[in-house]
Amino acid sequence: MIEGHCRRFTPKGAGFVKSVIAPMGLALFFLSSCAPRSPVTLTDSDDDATEAVISQAIGLLGNRYIDPLLPEQLTINAIEGLEAIDPEISVSLTPEDILARYGKNTVVTLPLPDDDETADENGHIHADIWAALVMDSLRTYRVYSPALRQASALEIQSRVIAGAIEGLDPYSRYENPNRAEISRDRREGYIGIGVDLIAGTGYPVVKKITENAPALKYGIHPGDQIISVDGTDLYNRSQLEVIDRLKGAPDSIAVLEINPTGSSLVRRLEVPRERIIARTVFPEIRNNVLIVEVRSFNNDTAAEIDQAIADAKIWSAGPLAGVILDLRGNRGGLLNQGVSVADAFLTSGPIGTTITRVPAAKHIFTSDDRDFTNGLPLVVLINGRTASSAELVAASLQDRGRAVLVGSTSFGKGSVQAINDLKNQGTITFTWSRLVAPSGYTFDRIGLHPAICTSEIGDHSPQQLISHAMDDKNALAKTMQAWRTVDFKNESSRAALRRACPPSYGTDKYDVDVALEVIKNPAAYGYFRQQSTLQTVAAQTID
């Protein structure tokens, strides 16, 4: 640790942030002034920027969302987003017009464009026409609404885009620039010191520190306040600005002034910046079996899996007997990383495909004969929180006969979201395709069925559970056939199948014990693989 000097810390006025360590954990108290909100002066360039962002969002949704969307409805939804700023705002649609109301009065009637003006010959909507209608209504509402006149350009953009996307599906969303940068850093990593912060009022407070990050090595702790970075005072700075100032070039030095929690002194630290990305893979070796917990998929996950397998071959006390891939609680992440993780255990063949109306979202995923484990017995653990790209990994390994699934029915999120950067540095994320397993079924809304169900075990030992499952000859194969051929639109049929092995949500060691027993028992491993392996069915049409 490089520590230049300490000085006594004198807090600033009403915006000062106090941090207190309580017996039950960290409590953060924020003192803020109650001054009235200052008016915001918006320029023509602010409105131009807002119109450009709205046009971009409407274009992306109208042309790339998985289901066709009417541009006039997107426009109405976008305008309705302004209601979050002023509840007196309302809007309705007639066959010819958009009616913008304030209170009980219609304040402007906006004619809808002619059909031949709204899209090109390929059906791609002209988003700028619809964005202009949103802006026309916005300018009119400003005349009547004090709240809207006080709203910043970023707040207006956020409300309008959130309105446009609201209600499409549970996974489509808008993130403002602050949230977008945090999400981007988690997916891709960044160069910094590795702290999560609470900022915006007073001095920023350290909320959490990334494992093995420079901040941890140099003695920064949760609850500490960061007073300045590289000579810039951080009092009342926004979250985004603080994050940006803590970032920098690789191996550059962040000169920090830190007020440790519970102290009246300020410490000066020189902390080197490094690439920061959350660890997602947690391996251990037990009885010569590699157990790999994968919590999510970011840019480093596949490389971490490869390294875990390579390390296990070196450090195992004897020859590796098998691998347990623990995907319980893994809600997904980057799809390409999930595909690469599946590839690490497969010979050449299919991993999955997507179905969509959007040409750019159509993909066929295949494995490249990598199988780093050379065919070692493989068991995959799943539960009710295993979702999305984690489900694709498990489905491909199950369908290809490469792994035995143990646990409970998984979540059932077989949709793919596109993440798009907007011109205001925010992001819009929306569903644009659905995943199809190698056997041809989509697990969206139904999930995956494990070969060995542990969600209702009673007092059975792992050995008894395995033996009981093997006694019921061909039951698993029949269930898997029904699972893969169920009518996608028949909710009651899907629900009935899911009840055969209800979702569980814990990470009990019992699942691991069952997996270890399966790996030790070649007959059981072969039986469950054979009973749950690929049976090709026609890909389903999704309305």
UniProtKB/TrEMBL annotation:
GO function terms (MF aspect): endopeptidase activity; serine-type peptidase activity
Ranges that cross the membrane: none
Domain of life: Bacteria
Swiss-Prot/TrEMBL keywords: Hydrolase, Protease, Serine protease
InterPro entries: ClpP/crotonase-like_dom_sf (IPR029045), PDZ (IPR001478), PDZ_sf (IPR036034), Peptidase_S41A (IPR004447), Tail-specific_protease (IPR005151)
Any Gene Ontology CC annotation: outer membrane-bounded periplasmic space
GO biological process: proteolysis; signal transduction
Sequence ranges assigned to domain PDZ in this UniProt record: 179-261
Similarity-based family: Belongs to the peptidase S41A family.
PANTHER family registered for this protein in UniProt: CARBOXY-TERMINAL PROCESSING PROTEASE CTPA, TAIL-SPECIFIC PROTEASE
Protein name: Carboxyl-terminal protease
The organism of origin for this protein: Thalassospira marina
